[in-house]
Every structure is written in structure tokens, then in C-alpha cells.
Amino acid sequence: MKSLAEKIAPDAIKKLIPYQSARRIGGEGHLWLNANELEASCVYEGQQGAYHRYPDFLPDKLASAYLEYCQTHAPAMGCKAVAVRGADEAIDLLVRTFCQPGVDKVMVCPPTYAMYEFCADSIAVEALKVPLLSDFQLDMEEIISQLDVVNILFLCSPNNPTGNIISQTDIITLLDLAKDKALVVVDEAYIEFAPQTTVVGLIEQYPNLVVIRTLSKAFGLASVRCGFLLADDSVMDMVTRLIAPYPIADPTAEIALAALTEKGICQMNTQTDDLITIREWFASELNQLEIVEQVFTSSTNFLLVKFNTPICMYRYLCSKGIVTRNQVHEPALSNCVRITIGSQESMRETLLALKQMEAERI
Ligand SMILES: Cc1ncc(COP(=O)(O)O)c(C=O)c1O
User: Domain Aminotransferase class I/classII large: where (predicted)?
Assistant: First the structure.
């Protein structure tokens, strides 16, 4: 029987023979003269390793290390992992693998991460929008009524920029309803801030579920550009036809592997706990300010804050040298600013600026 991935992938993708890079072809021998690399390493100033050879085309060690890390919160038996250049590349790959430009559609639930719509727009795939409800949960009725016409439903949990977790019961309902229709992609970029809510454990039961992860957030490796796609074999078979010949640079793989050791994960967990403590302290301080209308509950490393001031708080904070993220473009988030949680010192400075503004206003 045809898998859902095979059913929805455009014919051009199904016919595609993956690019046969030198590493993919492999071989055995003592002289490697097959990839037009230099045979000896050039060592530039400050360089530690040797980088004259192309990296693995799909670094297995990294994928295995990430799967092992996933097991700490959920059984990830039936799923495969592939490393990509950040979660952003995973989103782009999924749209290009499973949607035919000008024909297929995806669904997004704003306010959410803008890249889902951007990647769809970039190849003329229509993005149907079903806005979140006022409590930032899914509008199930509306989603279900349009599920038949999309190839991918993008969900984000915990969601950016609202910070909340999407109901797992709703996700399961959608996975059941979309079983023969659409892939349900759950972007878990912020999952380390609420690890018990992961849906990775459901992949074995739902081959139409794809989970996206990253080392950019809790692991603190945004500049390394490393993310992961977790899915059933049938999805991976299609995605890896399109993946770049050498998606992961060796220095990236080395840093990522160090982060995924027991010691690295322990360090990340401690950092995450500390950040959550700062976030909760900052939220309680913000709640005492008159200029703050609401601090939304967050399961991430940021807070969405609604102000009740006539002036734009994003611009006010910018004038104090504090750069946050304005949310004016989101109809549901008027007067809202998204503030990333930094060190206690940075949050103290931000608070001080807000208190000054409040004092000036009175
Ligand atoms: C929800 C979400 N997904 C994906 C990304 C991109 O992550 P990466 O740095 O791994 O590309 C971000 C970055 O802000 C994000 O908020």
C-alpha cells in the first residue's frame, strides 16, 4: 500500500534520483581521488581540524546522537532523524518535497512562525490561514473543514510568538483525521522549555507526523545552524531525495555532537532551568507594572507582553538600546512585544527602562 508521503509527493519528486555525490556513492580504497578535493589539508590561522574532505552526506552519528537524546523524553523507536541546516531548512525542504508549485496548498495557524508561509509563498504554494482562537489554541472546526485541500498542516508547539503549548489532544485528533490526506508538521523548536509535551513518541503510530527540532534555542547554538527532522521512513525517503548533497559542515557536526553528549545535555538542562527561573521572575515583575496589560504564559525562552500605552513600546525600548520584537503586523497581537529572556542583568535593565517610562507617564 502507498504511504501518505508517496501519495502526496509531486511526480517530479517521486521520479527524482538523488544527486549522486562522491560521499553518497562511497567506495573502498586507499587513494581518494573521486571528489576534486585537495588531498592534503590547508591549515589557516587559528584552524583546529582538517577540512579538505567533503563531510558525510547524511551524518549518521549525529542523527543517532539526536535520536538518543529524544529518547530521554519520549520513546522515539519508529522514527528516523536527519540533520539539517537549522529548523528553517527543514521547513523549506518539507514544502519543496511535498507541494507542487501553483497546485498544492499548506495550512498555517497565525500568529505563528512566519517561515511556514514564507517558504510556501517562495514556490507559489498557497498558504491557507486559520488563525488561532483568542486563547491561542487551534480553531479545530475551521482547520478540519479545510484539511482535505492541504498537503501540509504546520503547527508550532510551544508556539512562537505566543509562547503557549498547543493541546496534544487536538494534535492527535488532527493526526487521525489527516491520516490519508496531509502531513502534520509540529515545529518543536522550543521543546526543551516544556519537554514533557513533545509529540515525537507519536511518530511510530502516525506516519503522517513530522517533528522539527533545532539546536538554536535551548542548546544555545544558533550560529552553528543545526536542526533535525524527525519522521517515519516513508517521509524521509522523499525528503532525502531533495536534501543538499552535503547539508552539514564538519565543524557543525563536531559542535553538535559535543552538545549531544551526556555532559552537553546536562549543561543545556541547567541553563534551561536557570532561564525559566529568570523568565518567571521577569514575568511577575512585569505584571506589577501599570503599563502592562497582560503577560502571556510562556513555555519558551521569550515572553509575549501586551502594553496599554498609546506609544509603541518596541520603539520606546529601542530608544533605550533594547531591541525586542514588534508584533504590530499581527492583527491578534496589537500593542504586543515579544521579549527574549536574557541574563538576570539584561532583564533588570529592561525592567528599569519600563519603570522609567511608567514614571514619566504619571
Ligand atoms: C518556531 C521556530 N521554528 C524554527 C526556527 C528557526 O530555527 P533554526 O535557527 O534552527 O533555523 C525558529 C527561530 O526563531 C522558530 O522560532
Answer: 45-351
Nearest atom within ligand 1 for CA of residue 222: 9
Q: Name the strand (E) or helix (H) holding 330.
A: none
Name the architecture of domain 4-260. Answer: 3-Layer(aba) Sandwich (3.40)
Beta strands in 109-199 (DSSP E): 126-129, 152-156, 183-187
**Phi (first) and psi of residue 354, to 5 degrees:** -70, -40
CB count within 10 Å of CB 287 equals 11
Would you list the domain boundaries of the chain? 4-260, 265-361
Neighbours of 322 (CB within 10 A): 17
Interval 324-351 mean pLDDT: 96
Per-residue model confidence as pLDDT tens digits over 50-79: 999 999 888 899 999 999 999 988 887 789
In the CATH scheme, what is the homologous superfamily, with its name and number, of domain 265-361?
Aspartate Aminotransferase, domain 1 (3.90.1150.10)
What sign does the CA torsion over 241, 242, 245, 246 have? negative
- For residue 162, what are the contacts with CB-CB under 8 A and spacing of at least 6? 111, 112, 132, 136, 296, 304
Helices (H), the chain: 4-8, 11-15, 22-25, 60-70, 86-98, 115-122, 140-146, 168-177, 233-242, 250-259, 262-287, 313-319, 344-361
Distance 290 CA to ligand 1 centre (A): 32
Task: Say how many Å lie between the CA of residue 114 and the centre of ligand 1.
Answer: 10
Closest CA to 35 of 57, 53, 49: 53
DSSP per residue over 247-267, as a string?
-S-HHHHHHHHHHTSHHHHHH
- Residue 84 alpha carbon to ligand 1 centre in Å: 12
What is the model's pLDDT at position 274? 98
